[in-house]
Amino acid sequence: MNKRKSKSEWMELVKEFKASNLNLTTWCRQEGICKTTIYPYIKILDNNQTALSEEQQWGKLSLPKSASNSAISIKVGSITLSVNSGFDKEVLSEVLRVAMNLC
């Protein structure tokens, strides 16, 4: 007999789905979950993330020329990232996206 899942259990499953990078049909088939059951929780999580991103404000970052070879620290929630000169912009963008989803 299947036990009913709580909202928090569904939200964890949604996070697992999002992290899988699979399409919903494939992921649900692999997990044995009905798409129509998980879909409302995907919408809730997407709406929550949209609301959070609209509330977030970014400041302007200016570095003096003398600091061009130094590392900088970026704090996102409880995560602090150190970035050295010569960093890969695409990698930093992806790391920031993941960090923002975790916070």
Question: What does this 3D model show about the protein?
Answer:
This protein is mainly alpha-helical. The chain has 4 helices and 2 strands. Strands 1-2 form a two-stranded antiparallel ribbon. Strand 1 and strand 2 form a beta hairpin. Helix 1 (7-20) crosses helix 3 (35-55).
Kindly summarize this structure in a few lines.
With 103 residues, this protein is mostly helical.
- What's the gyration radius in Å? 19 Å
> Would you tell me the structural class of the helices and strands?
mainly alpha
Query: What is the number of helices?
Result: 4
Task: Quote the distance from N terminus to C terminus.
Answer: 36 Å
User: What oligomeric state do these chains adopt?
Assistant: single chain
Task: Return the domain count.
Answer: 2
- What is the tally of beta strands? 2
- Helix/strand order, N-terminal first: HHHEEH
The helix content, as a percent range, equals 55-70%
What value does the average pLDDT take?
77
- Which sequence of strands runs across the widest sheet? 1-2
Strand content: 5-15%
